[in-house]
Amino acid sequence: MMKHVTGARCLKCARLWPAKPSLTTCPDCGGLLDIEYDYDAIRWELNRNTLSARRELSMWRYLEFLPVEGIGRRPRLRVGWSPLYEAEGLARKLGLSRLFIKDDGVNPTASLKDRASAMAVVKAEEAGAEVIACSSTGNAASSLAGNAAAAGFPTYIFVPSRAPKGKVAQLMIFGAHVISVDSSYEDTFKLSQQAIERYGWYNRNAAINPFLMEGKKTVALEIAEQLGWHMPDFVALSVGDGCTIAGVWKGLKDLHATGLIDRLPRLLSVQAEGCCPLNRAIAENKPWEPMEENTLADSIAVGVPRNADKALRAIRESHGVVVNVSDQEILDAAKLLGRTCGVFGEPAGVAGTAGVKKAVEKGLIPAEASVVSIVTGNGLKDTPNAIRAAGEPVRIGPSMDELLAVMERL
Ligand SMILES: *Cc1c(COP(=O)(O)O)cnc(C)c1O
Ligand SMILES: [Zn+2]
Q1: Which of 102, 111, 315, 374 for a ligand 1 pocket mutation test, highest count of atoms within 8 Å of Cβ?
Q2: Which of 26, 134, 257, 344 has the most beta carbons within 10 angstroms of its beta carbon?
Q3: What is the pLDDT of residues 88-145, one digit of tens each?
Q4: How far is the CA of 409 from the centre of ligand 1 (A)?
Q5: Please, are residues 391 and 370 in contact by the beta-carbon 8 Å criterion?
Q6: In a mutational test of the pocket of ligand 1, which residue from 82, 136, 376, 382 has the highest number of ligand atoms less than 8 Å from its CB?
């Protein structure tokens, strides 16, 4: 709750600002801001028992850890409290002691981005905004469009024209004003920033808006509670702009600071081989540099990560591990998750699991480790790549003879 927020600290100049709902970057130096809390006050109000008595099964279950006055007065979608499955079969296949799949593809618009968009809508209401805007490779856009539609906010949304049809279809169905830009995500982002400034819209660009990461961190709070507060050795997820991994780390540190968990997991940051500016910076221990956006996993095809500082800090602080996966490894992971867990993820959604497999093979994660792998988006968003991963079905005429002939091959 806002009463627990002590301010928004600049990552660059360390100044602390009042956390006004319309705040974006540091007014002094333009640095990214990080919301800070009074953990002693939270600890006073919240413990494992008070939490377990709560009926709210959504991200708003953790109100004390969120920078909001309340959950607003507008209607909202049910975001969060996604299932955490123990994947015994897949763990055996990968040679891991324990593996859990957190399926965030079951959110209302089918990705983890709903956690940030739900937050954006509540903050837009607090800020008295009338319109919300963002740029996105797809999921931030579709989640904003859906969550804003529920709350009655019009949206302006900028997507690169390569965004998959499924995500663009969501935007159109949710009634967003969509601007599809014939260029990279980088150019799309810049154009949206100019438009937001010019028209005074509420800004749901995740790196620029410090509140959104606070929404995303709820995935970590849920993982901890769903595991009975027994933390895994690693939390694995795919990384694009870096807001999600920074959010996960923030959530874990929040829990640690209030004594709800006594041990912090390490992060496994997974990027695509064809677009891995953050992982490269960690691996080579140097500042990050832009890369081409060369992967079929569109949600993590981010050549110029907008939240690099927070993401790199999170990976380093957690003594994290980085691994890059090829497009083929991503497609294989989609099949593997589907077949062993019944979980259908989009390419960026399953990249984290592809990374777990690779990290175990490379000895970066020991066999006796326990791992939570977050599936960040649903596979129905990108069916062409799902078909690429799993192929087409056999096709026959409506005859038993033809069926008998192909049964051998099935
Ligand atoms: C946005 C997204 C990511 C990466 O999150 P970042 O905050 O950009 O690092 C991963 N997977 C999916 C499905 C996403 O939509
Ligand atoms: Zn500053």
Answers
A1: 111
A2: 134
A3: 999 999 999 999 999 999 999 999 999 999 999 999 999 999 999 999 878 999 999 9
A4: 38
A5: no
A6: 376
The number of folded domains in the chain is 1
- CA 33 to ligand 2 centroid distance, Å: 8
* 306 backbone dihedrals φ, ψ, rounded to 5°: -85, -15
Q: Residue 374: nearest ligand to its CA?
A: 1
Q: Which residues pair with 133 in a beta bridge?
A: 156, 203
> Measured between alpha carbons, how far is 137 from 132 in angstroms, rounded to an integer?
17
Closest among 376, 139, 102, 379 to 239, alpha carbons compared: 376
Token code pair at residue 248:
């996960």
* Separation of CA 73 and ligand 1 centre (Å): 28
Q: What is the pLDDT of residues 248-295, one digit of tens each?
A: 999 999 999 999 999 999 999 999 999 999 999 999 999 999 999 999
Ligand lying closest to the C-alpha of residue 189: 1
Pocket around ligand 1: residues whose beta carbon is below 6 Å from it?
Answer: 111, 113, 139, 238-245, 299-300, 346, 348-349, 376-377
What DSSP assignment string belongs to 188-244? HHHHHHHHHHHHT-EE--TTT-HHHHHHHTHHHHHHHHHTTT---SEEEEE-SSSHH
| Nearest ligand, CA 306 | 1
Ligand 1: nearest atom to the Cα of 237: 10
For atom 13 of ligand 1, the residue with the nearest CA is 377
CA of 401 to the centre of ligand 1 (A): 48
Both tokens assigned to 45: 């109000």
Counting ligands in written order, the one closest to the CA of 25 is: 2
Whether 339 maps to a domain, the answer reads yes
Identify the domain containing residue 249 by its residue range.
84-110+212-390
pTM of full prediction above 0.85: yes
Kindly report, residue by residue over 37-85, the tens digit of the pLDDT.
Answer: 999 999 999 999 999 999 999 999 999 999 999 999 999 999 999 999 9
CATH of the domain at 351: 3.40.50.1100
Confidence of residue 2 (pLDDT cuts 50, 70, 90): confident
Q: Is residue 352 in some structural domain?
A: yes
Distance from the CA of 271 to the center of ligand 1, in angstroms? 10
Q: How many Å apart are CA 16 and CA 31, to the nearest integer?
A: 12
Q: How far apart are CA 382 and CA 386, in angstroms?
A: 7
Q: What angle do CA 77, 6, 215 make, to 5 degrees?
A: 20
Does residue 218 sit within a domain?
yes
